[in-house]
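Consider the tokenized backbone below.
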């Protein structure tokens, strides 16, 4: 994947004249090339782009969107604190997605079976922890979709 996005141009009164005379476009230039392997694990591929953008938005944001009460813990009542909480959940979820081995913390050592590795098993599996972790990740992705149009500064 190759992405080149130029900064937003500054709109001036003479942009229309330049466009008519020289073909100057006052639009932002965007070039995206997608390779076939980029869509193999598209969710992981996109996490490498989305995560740093979310982190930068959190650092530089100049305001907050309206967050539904049902999307945050009850004790968070301030608008800005709610938006921070939602951004933190999105960031956490994309950090987990970017880390390919996050599930390993919920499995004990692998023990080979009597017929070798094919019928082996794990010493222990924390199914509840794994499920809770996955549910939190899924909630962060749900929040990302719900507040997608609020991801601007």
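A designed sequence for it:
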């Amino acid at each position: 994947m190759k992405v080149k996005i130029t900064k937003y141009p500054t709109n001036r009164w003479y942009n229309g004249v330049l466009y008519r005379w020289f073909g100057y476009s006052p639009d932002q230039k965007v070039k995206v090339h997608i390779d076939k392997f980029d869509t193999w694990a598209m969710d992981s591929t996109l996490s490498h782009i989305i995560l740093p953008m979310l982190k930068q938005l959190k650092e530089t944001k100049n305001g907050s969107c309206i967050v539904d009460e049902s999307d945050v813990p009850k004790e968070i009542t301030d608008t800005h604190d709610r938006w921070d909480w939602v951004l933190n959940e999105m960031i956490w979820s994309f950090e987990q997605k970017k880390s390919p081995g996050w599930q390993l913390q919920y499995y004990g050592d692998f023990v080979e079976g009597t017929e070798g590795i094919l019928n082996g098993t794990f010493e222990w599996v924390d199914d509840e922890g794994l499920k809770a972790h996955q549910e939190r990740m899924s909630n962060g992705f749900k929040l990302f979709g719900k507040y997608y149009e609020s991801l601007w500064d």
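The chain has a mean pLDDT of 89.
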